[in-house]
Amino acid sequence: MKYQIALIPGDGIGPEIIDSACQVLNKVGATYGHEFIYTTVKAGGCAIDEFGVPLPDGALEQCLASDSVLLGAVGGPKWDTLPGHLRPERALLNIRKGMGLFANLRPARLMPMLKEASPLRRETAEKGFDLLIVRELTGGIYFGKSGRYQSEDGETAFDTETYSVKEIRRIGKVAFETARTRRGHVTSIDKANVMESSRLWRETMHELAKEYPDVQMKDMLVDNAAMQLVQNPSQFDVVVTSNIFGDILSDEASQLTGSIGLLPSASLGETKCGMYEPIHGSAPDIAGQDMANPIATVLSAAMMLRLSFGLTKEADAVEKAVDEVLNQGLRTRDIAWGGPSVSGSAMTKALVDRL
Ligand code: IPM
Ligand code: MG
Predict the structure, then answer these.
(1) All CATH 3.40.718.10 domain ranges in the chain, comma separated
(2) pLDDT digits (tens, 9 = 90+) for 221-268
(3) Atom 10 in ligand 1: residue holding the nearest Cα
(4) Cβ–ligand 1 contact at 247 (below 6 Å)
(5) How close is the Cα of 245 to the center of ligand 2, in Å?
(6) Which atom of ligand 1 is the closest one to the Cα of 243?
(7) 18: β partners
(8) pTM check: above 0.85
(9) Contact 252 CB / ligand 1 (< 6 Å)
(10) CB–CB of 102/138 below 8 Å?
(11) Which residues are marked as active site?
(12) Per-residue pLDDT at 338 exceeds 90
């Protein structure tokens, strides 16, 4: 089979880790008889430098015309002082919105061989955890009304958290359906003790839960969830939450696995065409030094194989290669914790050799 993949390398370490993922995909293609055809799309800071805008004309169309999108990372200090609508991150937000990718799946699993790298207490790390954050991705405060005005205190700014029942049900369904394929448990996270949008979120999740009697659902306030993640992460199976809470909690969950450099993500909408990206950023401090951990992006490519292309055994093989290479003791700097480490390209080569 042939698959068209739009690549958005982006900024910082983005191009290096995308290159790693392509090497892995090419090996998968050669081994299992598939052809992956790549189109590179410029978006983010590099597009600002070249075209003056984060998402040039035609970029979104190129993504929509592909079978799937693989993104590295966008952003960096160089573009930090630009106004909101011209920042590199705008490219990402506009692609998510433009492609209708409302569901962001962020799995976080403590791999047994990396327990030592986790900042969790030893007893907690021993228990391990395997959770999936289902983050709403095209609504909430990221896309609500925002602006600035002069108040009696002087310059004032605002952003608005807005959610409709329709949006909440749509993401809730993804969480409940996915829970059925896992351990059958959903934790819905909100701030219903303070926010009206969270009270609607909670009511809607309770209504929806009635349609899934085989799935257990409970609510949790977001501040408590942040604490429970550190205290007792093994209690979580599927976690469903808003755009901003999901953004914050997924960074926290990732670090509990040992490194943010390990976690993939998938952004999905109504069609099979999704966008896959590591949850980490562009890490400008280590860009171009062959130090970045390619695993999060390689695992994102595996999610693409599984969820967009239905290539289960190929996805399994990539995930197995990652496990094996880590079991062998190979570590990039972010997971070496001061011990011996290898470069990003050495890690990539080890993965390709395993496949
Ligand atoms: C993420 C990132 C993005 C987000 C930024 C880069 C806009 O932090 O994917 O988690 O906030 O969604
Ligand atoms: Mg984030």
Answers:
(1) 1-118+259-355, 122-256
(2) 999 999 999 999 999 999 999 999 999 999 999 999 988 899 999 999
(3) 247
(4) yes
(5) 10
(6) 12
(7) none
(8) yes
(9) no
(10) yes
(11) 142, 191, 223, 247, 251
(12) no
Q: Distance from the CA of 74 to the center of ligand 2, in angstroms?
A: 11
Q: Taking the domain 122-256, which CATH number applies? A: 3.40.718.10
Pairing of strands 185-190, 238-241: parallel
Cα distance between residue 216 and residue 341, in whole Å: 42
Ligand 1 center–CA 247 separation, angstroms: 6
Q: 1-118+259-355 sits in which CATH class?
A: alpha beta
Does 92 contact ligand 1 (Cβ within 6 A)?
A: yes
